[in-house]
């Protein structure tokens, strides 16, 4: 990659990191940024729910061969460079060719999807900062990737993660506990198609950009990962994603008694379900999130100290750090910001 291109990509990523763009706009901008700078045959950029490390939305470039099946290979198949593994690993970036020891045929994803489409290699990365994954990236080529391209994408991961985190914080800051639209229910069959949908579910599907007839249709991208995770793990899974109206949607998936079948409930996220995501968006550490959660439950300093086995003085030090990150001055303001979603980051 030319030095000027590398410098331009870094500068553009830095600008996005400070732009505080709305989340859908940021997703488009990041996709366009990579499309301008990295030669590609096809690709995708995803937002990720950092609490569950589940893909929550995406932008596709020229229909990647794994587009509809990406959740199956991510959660059901044993494969290399799965996004969840990259997010928890020492490096948030990897080439399929390197991960398979230059024998890509070892990868089911390569054998069954990429090779038939003429793809020679795949570059994947996650956007992780402070231990939380906010986005992901997958780029495909019929020619190999250069090592400096891989290193540059790895370098940009935390920068772009901060941009996604800031966008999420600003958007989550407007969330209210709105129950005016009733929950909707989808039943997804073993073939990963919508078997039936309640009337409210149709409205929620429209919020996710699906306006056709649900019966027999494939799930929107925003729901494929959470449904597949429930199918594979055999337990309930959830994800929060932003609808096209700017409202957040909570999706809860659970396996049914029938093999391979999954029920998906779509509803407004409650303030309690948004609070942990908002805490992560403000960059709170794991200990700070636990402490903030106890504050939201009305625990006193002494009770928090006893619960977390720390001193009251340490509790106060953590609170000062939390106040600074969230931009508040008191417990009351903190509770208002995290539980009601009032204000912005």
UniProtKB/TrEMBL annotation:
<feature type="domain" description="HTH luxR-type">
    <location>
        <begin position="277"/>
        <end position="342"/>
    </location>
</feature>
<keyword id="KW-0805">Transcription regulation</keyword>
<dbReference type="InterPro" id="IPR000792">
    <property type="entry name" value="Tscrpt_reg_LuxR_C"/>
</dbReference>
<protein>
    <submittedName>
        <fullName>LuxR C-terminal-related transcriptional regulator</fullName>
    </submittedName>
</protein>
<dbReference type="Pfam" id="PF00196">
    <property type="entry name" value="GerE"/>
</dbReference>
<dbReference type="InterPro" id="IPR016032">
    <property type="entry name" value="Sig_transdc_resp-reg_C-effctor"/>
</dbReference>
<dbReference type="InterPro" id="IPR036388">
    <property type="entry name" value="WH-like_DNA-bd_sf"/>
</dbReference>
<keyword id="KW-0804">Transcription</keyword>
<keyword id="KW-0238">DNA-binding</keyword>
């Amino acid at each position: 990659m030319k030095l000027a291109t590398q410098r331009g990509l870094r500068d553009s990523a830095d600008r996005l990191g400070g732009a505080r763009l709305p989340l859908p706009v940021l997703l488009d901008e990041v996709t366009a940024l990579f499309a301008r700078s990295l030669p590609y045959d096809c690709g995708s950029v995803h937002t990720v729910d950092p609490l569950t490390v589940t893909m929550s939305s995406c932008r596709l470039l020229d229909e990647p061969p794994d587009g509809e099946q990406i959740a199956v290979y991510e959660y059901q198949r044993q494969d290399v460079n799965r996004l969840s593994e990259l997010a928890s690993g020492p490096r948030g970036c990897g080439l399929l060719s390197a991960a398979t020891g230059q024998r890509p045929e070892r990868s089911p994803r390569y054998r069954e999807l990429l090779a038939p489409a003429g793809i020679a290699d795949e570059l994947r990365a996650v956007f992780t900062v402070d231990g939380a994954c906010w986005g992901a990236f997958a780029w495909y080529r019929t020619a190999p990737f250069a090592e400096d391209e891989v290193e540059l994408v790895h370098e940009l991961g935390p920068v772009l993660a901060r941009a996604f985190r800031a966008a999420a914080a600003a958007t989550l800051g407007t969330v209210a506990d709105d129950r005016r639209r009733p929950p909707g229910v989808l039943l997804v069959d073993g073939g990963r198609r919508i078997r039936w949908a309640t009337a409210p579910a149709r409205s929620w599907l429209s919020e996710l950009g699906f306006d056709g007839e649900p019966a027999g249709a494939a799930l929107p991208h925003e729901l494929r990962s959470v449904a597949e995770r429930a199918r594979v793990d055999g337990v309930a899974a959830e994800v929060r994603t932003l609808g096209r109206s700017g409202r957040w949607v909570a999706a809860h998936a659970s396996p049914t008694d029938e093999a391979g079948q999954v029920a998906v409930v779509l509803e407004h996220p409650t303030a309690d379900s948004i609070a942990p995501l908002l805490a992560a968006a403000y960059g709170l550490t794991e200990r700070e999130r636990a402490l903030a959660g106890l504050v939201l439950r009305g625990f006193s300093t002494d009770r928090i100290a006893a619960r977390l086995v720390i001193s009251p003085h340490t509790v106060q030090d953590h609170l000062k750090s939390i106040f600074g990150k969230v931009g508040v001055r008191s417990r009351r303001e903190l509770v208002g910001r995290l539980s009601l979603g009032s204000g912005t980051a």
